[in-house]
Amino acid sequence: MFNIPTISLAYLDTNELLRFGSVGESVQFLQRDLAQLGFNPGPIDGIFGNLTKSAVLLFQQQNNLLVDGIVGRQTKNTIKNLLKVDSKNVIVYTVQRGDTLFLLAQRFNTTVSAIMETNGLSNHIIYIDQRLLIPSTKEMPQPQQQQLPSQQPPQQQTKQQQMELEMLELVNQERVRHGLKPLIMDQNIVMVARLKSQDMIVNKYFAHNSPVYGSPFDMMRSFGISFRTAGENLAGSPSVIRAHTNLMNSPGHRANILNPNFTHIGIGIVEGGPYGIMFTQMFVGK
């Protein structure tokens, strides 16, 4: 429908809102830039469809923006900041398990604040497989098992993380009480579960099948989550403990929590919606 776009960031300086259903050259530039930053928008065709919306939602979540799928001023500014960094002084790094901003700053001879500013981060939270732009020209050699017990500053947990960890503890208490192994929290699944909770709030529904992502299994696969078996619990409630109690009182949801075949879990809790807080538990067996 449209020609391949030339390099241009002009669309990022306009007040035009890009959202599901938008079409045109600005959408095509957006798709190109998302792809360049490591977020798959689907075909670069100038049509803001489901794949492009999924890429925008994931970009917003990983950059601590409002996760609404709409490309407005904040999202545009973050894209612009990431794209305008001088590539000669930047290393594109994919976050690995165990990485922290403090360790990456030491490894690449830079500072935590420089990494945060370059990537538009508002806190110290980073995710496995997240792509970061590291403002450095050389990597400092580090031993394989570096111990920094007193040097690493503590990372303050957000309210969202605290609620998710509280629910994880409640779930694993039930499993241990029934002679089952506790579930391991997988941050990649957490990101998908958060998107599902946000999607239910934004699109005003409460169901396993999403109008954007399809079934929970399709959604997990589309974000690269592999599994032998999987399940999903949904809840809407004003508190973690009430949501957990309601889930345990429901035979189907209780069966997922106590399923011996599940090994990992992602819990996504987002405030909002008609119930006050939306809860998504995604279970997988690997």
UniProtKB/TrEMBL annotation:
Gene3D superfamilies: CAP, LysM domain, PGBD-like superfamily/PGBD. Residues 139-161 are annotated as: Disordered. Signal peptide: none annotated. It holds the Pfam family CAP. Residues 91-134 form the LysM domain. It comes from the Bacteria. NCBIfam families: spore_YkwD. This is Uncharacterized protein, YkwD family. It comes from Anaerobranca californiensis DSM 14826.
